[in-house]
Amino acid sequence: MTFLNLLAASSSQTTFPVIPALVLIPVFGAIAVALTPNARVGLHKMLATIFTGVTGAISVWLLTAFKTNSEFQFLSQQSWI
Description:
Elements lengths: L2 H9 L6 H18 L5 H25 L16
C-alpha cells in the first residue's frame, strides 16, 4: 500500500464535517479580512493566505481520502428539529 492509500484507509471514517468546513472556512476568512482595518494591507494578505492554506489542506485531505466506489462519502448528518 502506498502512503496515500494508508491515509485514505485510516481517515475515511471521520466525524469531522468536511463539506461544511470547505464552505464555511472561506466565509470566515472573508469576514476576517472585511473586519480588518484598510491600513493593514499586510494583515489582509496574511489572513487570506492562512484561510486559503487551511481550505487547501482540507481539500487535499478530501482528495486523498476519496474512494472510487459507488457509496456515499463524507456525509454530514445534522438534526434539524
